[in-house]
Structures are given as structure tokens and as C-alpha cells.
Amino acid sequence: MLGASPRTARSASTLQLPTDFSPATSGAPTFTYKKELFHVDLREYENAGGDYPQAEEERATKKTQIKELIHSRWEAAKEVNAFNYALNCMYKCLDGKYELSIQVMMYLKCEDNPITTDPLDRHLIAVNASPLERDHCLIIPAVNKCHPQVLNPIAIRLAVDIMLLVTDSDFHILFNSLLGQASVNHLHLHALYWPYDSDLINRCFEHLADVPDVYVIQPPMWLTSAFAFQLTKMEDYEKFKSNIFKCVNFLTDQNQAHNLFFTRAQPIRTDGPDRVEDRRRQLPLYVTCYVFPRQNIVGAKPPSNFNPAANELAGCLTSYTYRFFESAAEQAVVRIIEEEALLPTNVFQNLCCDLSDLYSNRPLGTSRESKTSLLDGLSSPEIDELRDTFESFNQPRSPSVRLKNPLNHTQSVDEQVVRFEIHSAD
């Protein structure tokens, strides 16, 4: 009987590995790391060069950086023709206020702070057989448990840790939820490099009501609405992960589709100009997470010019046709995002109210009631007139023609991946 012997490991895994399993029997390399190797401010690491304490630790242990290991395994997969096509990427930047860019076509384990308590959990990094760019791979948390495409604390922990380990500002981690352009219903995140910064990192944000560590941006400041979280010091490591999970868990409970974009960004501003670019490259670069609540999309991804998912909502577009790549203009891109992703203003405002209650430990709905009280004293005709004016002013430019149903699940589309493993030990 499994687990009858005290020496036999028990697991809640859907797939039970042999009790004598050892990572040494796997052909995939194991990547182990300690929190001392995290880079909170990437700019400090770049400017300090070899004098940075983390760099000294890496040299002392002769540790290969995770980006080098991912690249070497990706190239090895390329040598054996593991990909569905050969990459031949073309990029260009679109004129306009949002500075959009467009493209035409491992096991992990932390030595000093275990990712999970289950000794049989295996966290996988898999080469994507249909990559968008070199080194494009998938992060699959606890692959043995067959989790659905719903973010959990383990997945967020892995995303944050990998962002802190990679010393490259072009590196991003993306997540597309069910009903939010997820292609398969197993828990995975995308990790890839993009040669252009998202202009979102240069934008001015607002605080989420009275919550100090959560930020909000809305059109016209950005092309869609988003919440933002930023890790500026390791003392806030746990709180940063917890804040992200509270947000995505709430959206999941509300059956609200969402996309996440992890990147390196300058300190988030809440005052000053609408846009400030760090051309002198002097400002810190902190791990930042943008959460985009979006319209629910039902069914398989249709063949179109592009599908707005995590990368696209951050301003990094992938075109599926050369014709659209050649003719794309910011106005057309914004229109597609408005039709297929942008939430109505009142829906996003309700999410903001409820999330501010959640972070402030108030009963859900408290902030909505306080906003409703602003209408006290107005007659019914006056309230109706205000509502009609508001709805007319916020009418989208084009009606959405896509089906939206928060109760349905995304139809899975097969996604072929070639897996390699990067381990990290307890």
C-alpha cells in the first residue's frame, strides 16, 4: 500500500512518482538557487558590474545563471528540430502615444526556502515548440499535480523568483487565464525576451483608493485598465506575492478573465507628467507585475490579425499576418483591444472598489456603498440624466462582436512543447 511504510513519501499529487525517484535519474539539469542570488534592483546590478554582492556569490559557487541554462537547453532543442518552425522575427515600432512594438512572427527548487512542502512536486521549465522568440519557454508549476490554468501561490512564487534571478531587463513572464486567451487548460506561464520596453513602465499611475502598495491605470493613460504591484525591497517579498495572489484570486472568484505581465520597471509614479522615460538609464529597475482584468472570451483563438493577451495588453504585439504587420497603426490596435479586451468603465470601477475593501479588510461592497451615497439628495430624473450622460460619454468606439460568458471555460487548443527540467532542492 502506498505510504504504508514510514520511509515512503506521501503526496497529494495526481500523478504519483516512484518512491525511489531521484532527480539524478532524469536527463534534465537541476537549477538550485538561494535567495541571496535575487536581484531586487537590476539597475544597481548593471551599474556595479562585478562588485555586486550577488555577482561575487555567483563567481564563488561557479553557478550558471538561469538565463544561460535556459538558452543552452533551448539551443539544444533547436539542434534536434524540436520546434514547429524556424524563427525569422521582424520587429517595428508603431507611431503614437503608447509606443507600441509589433513582431511578425528545468525543474526549479530553492535551497533555503522550499517552494512547496510536497517532496514530490516537480516544477518544470519546458521549451515551447511554437516560440515567439529565442528562449521562449513555459513555466509549469507542480507538473505532477496537473493543476488547471488558475494562478496559485506556487505559480506566483516561481514567477517572482525567476524574475529576481534573471539579470536581463528584456526578460518577461506572462500569464493568460481561462477566458483570457489561455491556449490550454493546464497551469503554465510564458517566459520570453522582448527587445523593446513596454511603455507601460513609463506611465503615471494612481493609488488604489487607500491601499498604499497597489496601483491603478486606466485609459487614456494606457490602452487598457490594469492593477500594478512592485517589489522595491526584499523585506516586502512575501507581501508582494500575497498582494498579487489576492488580486488574481478575487478575479478568479468573480469569473473575470485576466492577464499578467511581469517585467522590470522604474519606480511607479503617482504624480508628475503622464509619461517619463528614463533615457539616461539611472532609475532603479524593480520586478513589477501588471494585472489586466479583461473581457471574457469564449472558444478557441480565431485566426485574426492578432489576439490581445498578456503581451499585447502591455504593448508588445504579435502579428499573425505579414499584411497586418506592414499596415498596422496604433489606432487599429487600440480599436481591436477596445472591442476584445477592455472592460466597461463601471465594471472596472466596481472591481477597484471591491479590491480596496479586500486589501483593507473591509466587507466587500463597503466602498461601492460610499460611492452610491454621493447621489443622495438628487431626484430620480436627475440621477437618470447623469447615468445617460455617463453611458453616452463612455460608449466604446465599436461594439464587441465576440461572445462573452463568465460561466463557460476556454476551449483548449493543443499546444506542443518539448520539455526540459531545471531543478532546485529543498
From TrEMBL:
Residues 1-21 are annotated as: Disordered. It catalyses: GDP-alpha-D-glucose + phosphate = alpha-D-glucose 1-phosphate + GDP + H(+). Keywords: Cytoplasm, Guanine-nucleotide releasing factor, Hydrolase, Nucleotide-binding, Nucleotidyltransferase, Transferase. One of its GO terms (biological process) is glucose metabolic process. Coiled coil: none annotated. Its EC number is 2.7.7.78. Signal peptide: none annotated. Pfam families: GDPGP1_C, GDPGP1_N. Its main location: cytoplasm. GO terms for cellular component: cytoplasm. Residues 108-192 form the GDPGP1-like N-terminal domain. It comes from the Eukaryota. Specific and highly efficient GDP-D-glucose phosphorylase regulating the levels of GDP-D-glucose in cells. Belongs to the GDPGP1 family. This is GDP-D-glucose phosphorylase 1. The lineage of its organism: Eukaryota, Metazoa, Ecdysozoa, Nematoda, Chromadorea.
